[in-house]
Amino acid sequence: MSLSPGSPAPAIDLATDDGRFSLAEHAGKTVVVYFYPKDDTSGCTLEAKDFTAFAPEFERLGVVVVGISPDGETSHAKFRAKHGLAVVLASDPNQAAANAYGVWKEKSMYGRKYMGIERTTFLIGPDGRIARIWEKVKVTGHAEAVLKVVGG
Predict the structure, then answer these.
(1) What are the Cα distances from residue 129, in Å, to 37, 112, 122, 149?
(2) CA distance linking residue 110 with residue 18, whole number of Å
(3) What is the DSSP letter of 23?
């Protein structure tokens, strides 16, 4: 399934380190869903810290931000505590959400092929449709760019 702006956002209902995140519970709100490969790695840490730095602005605008990776809830809890993160982190161990959003892809490193998350961010409008997609995200400045698009 290939998603594009205007497509209905696939359902998300995943465990977090302190409960659950369900996209349906945020119907009528703008939601930023960012998929990232792994807790506590350099790029993923920088991305989560940047979204945390802008959390007050996203909140002021009524925008919900959630990060999703295949890591478990315990890993998310340690990651959030270690770096003082203020964003919701949802666990997608079976890649259900990653597959629904088309971000679970074949990757290559040092000639070795493997499956993993392609860093991607989706802006979901209050109507439940995808408003914007950032593919193959470069972390530096990304959270601020997303904030500018939602009106910050």
Answers:
(1) 24, 36, 10, 16
(2) 37
(3) G
Catalytic residue among 44, 85, 103, 130: 44
Region 122-147: what's the mean pLDDT?
A: 94
DSSP state of 10: P
Among all chains, which residue has been given the structure tokens 């997609």? 133
In the chain, where the domains are located = 13-18+28-150
Q: According to the model, what pLDDT value does residue 2 have?
A: 79
Q: Which pLDDT score is estimated for 152?
A: 56
Model confidence, pTM: 0.94
Cα 25-136-6 angle, rounded to 5 deg: 45
Task: Return d(Cα 111, Cα 67) in angstroms, integer.
Answer: 28
pLDDT tens digits, 81-92: 999 999 999 999
Please give the CATH number for the structural domain made up of 13-18+28-150.
Answer: 3.40.30.10
Residues 102-111: pLDDT tens digits? 999 888 878 8
CB atoms within 10 A of CB 112: 7
Is residue 44 part of the annotated active site? The answer reads yes
